């Protein structure tokens, strides 16, 4: 291997031994394997994750997958970065070390030990929370040691509010197993407690409670249990209040729409959602969602439009039709499909909404949609909607289109 320095884009040369043998890039978290070779942690972990069990350089079999941080080399790399900062080289941060399973096990034992002082237990949960925030790998380690079931027990048995709230925040970072979801869903007092937290003074506590409710709903296979959860007084009002939180809080929007969508997947819950004010919350916040959350919000709109009460509430909101028309072909294929489906439901029950949709330019959007590469379900909804609207649009509304876009060519009558 050459001992010279190779030039890089910023006009400075990286010492050969500072480069990872796998990625050939500057190492940010050098670790040494049992063969004595050093690699960047992310590179060697990716190498092993793809099924390789040998050392990339020596080709010897790796007998131990516990990597040892090479602190000396990392400090040398950091010093080199500092000395070359005038060339645009940024100092690599000192990496946070992965959570040690034995330490995680000890912290979980402390957190669940009721004989210990509450401040000791609280410190243990907060340290676990710090590990969980650092990386997905840490969350995997913590979850593998049955942390969720331990934390669930703390949440519903502990009288110290601060410890309960911190445990709730930590458990909301994990995906729960079916058994863990059932352990919450099948005990009404646990759902009642979570719903009570939806009106807590702290928005963080409210969001974490809604997050756990959504996780439980998504992981519970029993329809009867999902219906029972939806019947708890104050649930929909609490979730919608999070969705309507007046300040910019992206996590509140994300958790709120996930929870509302999970609830509305159950047919028996949709009228409750409409009654609690879901329609105004969805339309008023539609422009604030990120892409995947906007898709979920539009799917919820379509679900609620399948009920007479939902159709009536959306029809009464002046922005519903213009927003849905505007979304077609603008956000994503899924968003287009949901928006077209909602418009189809609305226009089916109201001639006035048909005229409103035509005025908002829906004919142009639908004609483009059926000629696009969108999903077949979206095209089918567009064709049905075009057929429904044909009597509502003026004769000159499609005169600017070529023959390929004529309604008679794309809509079967």
TrEMBL record:
Pathway where it operates: Protein modification; protein ubiquitination
Keyword Transferase set for record: yes
CDD domains, A to Z: RING-Ubox_PUB
Gene3D superfamilies linked: Leucine-rich Repeat Variant, Zinc/RING finger domain, C3HC4 (zinc finger)
EC number from the UniProt entry: 2.3.2.27
GO MF terms, alphabetically ordered: ubiquitin protein ligase activity
Biological process according to GO: defense response; protein ubiquitination
The protein, known as: U-box domain-containing protein
Source organism: Kingdonia uniflora
């Amino acid at each position: 291997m050459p001992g010279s320095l190779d030039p890089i884009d910023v006009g400075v040369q990286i010492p050969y031994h500072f480069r990872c043998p796998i990625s050939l890039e500057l190492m940010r978290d050098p670790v040494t394997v049992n063969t004595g070779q050093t690699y960047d942690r992310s590179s060697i972990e990716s190498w092993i994750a793809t099924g390789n069990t040998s050392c990339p350089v020596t080709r010897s079999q790796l007998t131990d997958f516990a990597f040892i941080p090479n602190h000396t080399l990392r400090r040398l790399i950091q010093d080199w970065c500092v000395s070359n900062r005038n060339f645009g080289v940024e100092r690599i941060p000192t990496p946070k070390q992965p959570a040690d399973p034995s330490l995680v096990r000890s912290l979980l034992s402390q957190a669940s030990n009721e004989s210990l002082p509450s401040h000791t237990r609280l410190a243990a949960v907060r340290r676990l929370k710090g590990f969980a925030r650092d990386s997905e790998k840490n969350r995997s380690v913590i979850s593998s040691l049955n942390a969720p079931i331990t934390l669930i027990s703390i949440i519903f048995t502990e009288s110290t509010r601060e410890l309960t709230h911190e445990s709730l925040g930590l458990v909301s970072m994990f995906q729960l197993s079916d058994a863990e979801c059932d352990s919450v869903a099948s005990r009404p007092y646990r759902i009642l407690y979570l719903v009570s937290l939806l009106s807590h003074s702290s928005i963080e506590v409210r969001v974490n409670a809604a997050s756990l409710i959504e996780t439980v709903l998504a992981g519970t296979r029993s329809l009867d249990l999902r219906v029972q959860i939806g019947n708890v007084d104050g649930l929909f009002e609490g979730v919608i209040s999070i969705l309507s939180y007046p300040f910019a809080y992206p996590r509140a929007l994300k958790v709120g729409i996930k929870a509302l969508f999970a609830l509305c997947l159950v047919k028996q819950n949709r009228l409750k959602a409409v009654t609690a004010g879901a329609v105004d919350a969805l339309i008023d916040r539609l422009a604030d969602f990120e892409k995947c959350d906007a898709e979920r919000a539009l799917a919820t709109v379509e679900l609620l439009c399948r009920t007479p009460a939902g159709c009536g509430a959306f029809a009464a909101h002046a922005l519903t039709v213009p927003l849905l028309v505007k979304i077609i072909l603008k956000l994503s294929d899924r968003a287009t499909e949901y928006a077209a489906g909602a418009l189809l439901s609305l226009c089916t029950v109201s001639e006035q909404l048909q005229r409103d949709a035509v005025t908002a330019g829906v004919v142009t959007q639908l004609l483009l949609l059926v000629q696009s590469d969108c999903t077949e379900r979206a095209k089918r909804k567009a064709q049905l909607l075009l057929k429904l609207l044909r009597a509502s649009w003026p004769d000159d509304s499609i005169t600017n289109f070529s023959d390929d876009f004529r309604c008679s060519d794309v809509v079967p009558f």
